[in-house]
Amino acid sequence: MTDDRTPSASSLTAPDGFPPSPGGHDPEVLRQRALDALLTARARTTALTDSVDEGELTAQHSPLMSPLVWDLAHIGNQEEQWLLRAVGGRQALRPEIDGLYDAFEHPRAARPSLPLLAPAEARTYASDVRGRALDILEAAPLHEGGRPLERAGFAFGMIAQHEQQHDETMLITHQLRSGPVALTAPAPPEPTDAVSLPGEVLVPGGSFTMGTSAEPWALDNERPAHRREVAAFHLDTAPVTCGAYRRFMADGGYTDPRWWAPEGWDMVREHGLEAPLFWHRDGGQWLRRRFGVTEPVPDDEPVLHVSWYEADAYARWAGRRLPTEAEWEKAARHDPATGRSLRYPWGDTDPTPEQANLGQRHLRPARAGAYPAGRAPSGAGQLIGDVWEWTSSDFLPYPGFVAFPYREYSEVFFGPGHKVLRGGSFAVDQVACRGTFRNWDLPVRRQIFSGFRTARDA
Q1: Class of domain 185-458
Q2: Which residues is 451 bridged to in the sheet?
Q3: Spatial separation of the C-alpha atoms in residues 273 and 312, rounded to whole Å
Q4: Quick check: 398 and 254 in contact, CB under 8 A?
Q5: pTM above 0.90?
Q6: Is the CB of residue 126 less than 8 Å from the CB of residue 72?
Q7: What are phi and psi of 206, to 5 degrees?
Q8: What is residue 85's predicted lDDT score, i.e. its pLDDT?
Q9: Rounded distance, CA 435 to CA 329, Å?
Q10: What is the DSSP string of 382-446?
């Protein structure tokens, strides 16, 4: 997931233009929710950084990623700037390191050469910031009439989401590293009725409400809620599986330019691609490397680590297409019985382990057809969790978009250069994943936990 989106709090913009969340959000409920989200994120950060030694923390395992120790101190620095300084009005603890941990100032490939905090110092710094941030949270007025950053606990929710996004990034780094196994987790639950599921569902045409003006911690690009018209279409019931993708490969998918966008075909030829990232052939068998373990590619699991170009090529080969972002959201949120758009495919309640594969609970997607309790009214499943799903849409603002609290979170990325992903993955925490959440990345990206499903016109 693209995580380098948070500059210093000095770039705060247009606070009075940010749409306020409506009434009904109890400040004390939100305070407890913020506390839980911050503690959950920090426990995950600790697990990801304590599982490897100091050398692994300071190494750069790929030029695509930062050293893990950079992420650790960056998490603390952003929390200091936004919660201690911007919300709490506190004096800066470490102003001299702001530039080192400004994601826009230093590209990832250059970060190992910076005078970064050592692991022990980074841990102490992040811990000191957190203690002060929790004091501020305890006293902050979170009522609707408060300052925009404090209203409904927005800044605390934003920082919890930011830390979880970096936790996902650090998990990507763990996947890229070549050292010994550092992380383990149980397998996800097996599907109960996968054989009887239809291959696709019909989503009727008509308008629906896209985006949100009610979710208190929704980020600026999710806002505002607006009506969107979508023609009827068919959508895969589950994400495309490794077995289905192997049929594309076996049919010469990586050697036939007919299926590829010109830039994607250039990428295939330049890098000699023949399979998803982390796959390799051993005799007649395809194997993959997953967090340090080499294993056979499971045919019934959603395909992972494919770029937008690969997803688009598969869809063309199959005589289908990638869904638009609006189609994806209608399939995931629209309830035709009530006409409402739900927070999640299953309703308005927060995810449970029976509904979605989230939070690094498992270190892989569940098999296609899992989580029947998480299916949408449309009949489509696994729309939240498991794999990020590429859509055909460019990342663009919604009508009435207002940048908040800074332009660099979303606005500078708008345009045809980035494609939208939806739904989250097993590496995403629920605080940074909902039916309206929008992720985006470059169409060449393969190291992210990305898959896809396909659609066709009705």
Answers
A1: alpha beta
A2: 389
A3: 15
A4: no
A5: yes
A6: yes
A7: 130, 180
A8: 97
A9: 7
A10: --SBSSEEEEEEEE-PPTT----S-GGGTGGG-EEEEEEEES--TT--GGG--TT--EEE-TT--
Measured distance CA(322)–CA(339) in Å, rounded: 25
Which tokens in the block code for residue 363?
A: 């270190």
CB atoms within 10 A of CB 170: 24
Mean pLDDT by 10 residues, the chain (458 residues): 57 45 71 97 98 96 96 98 96 95 92 96 98 97 84 95 98 95 96 86 98 96 98 98 98 98 98 98 95 97 98 98 98 97 97 98 97 97 98 98 93 97 98 97 98 98
Cα angle 211, 214, 216 (rounded to 5 degrees) comes to: 110
Concatenated DSSP letters of 292-324: TEEEEPPTTSBP-S--HHHHHHHHHHTT-BPPP
What is the residue extent of each domain of the chain? 9-176, 185-458
CA-nearest of 344, 310, 298, 291 to 443 is 310
What is the 8-class DSSP label of residue 52? S
Neighbours of 371 (CB within 10 A): 28
**Candidates 3.40.50.2000, 1.20.120.450, 1.10.10.2910, 1.10.3210.10; CATH matching 9-176:** 1.20.120.450
Identify whether the C-beta of residue 207 lies closer than 8 Å to the C-beta of residue 230: yes
* DSSP-assigned letters across all residues of 330-387: HHHHEETTTTEEPSBTTBSSPP-TTT-B-TTSSSSPPPTT--GGG--TTS----SBSS
Contact 100, 72 (CB under 8 A): no
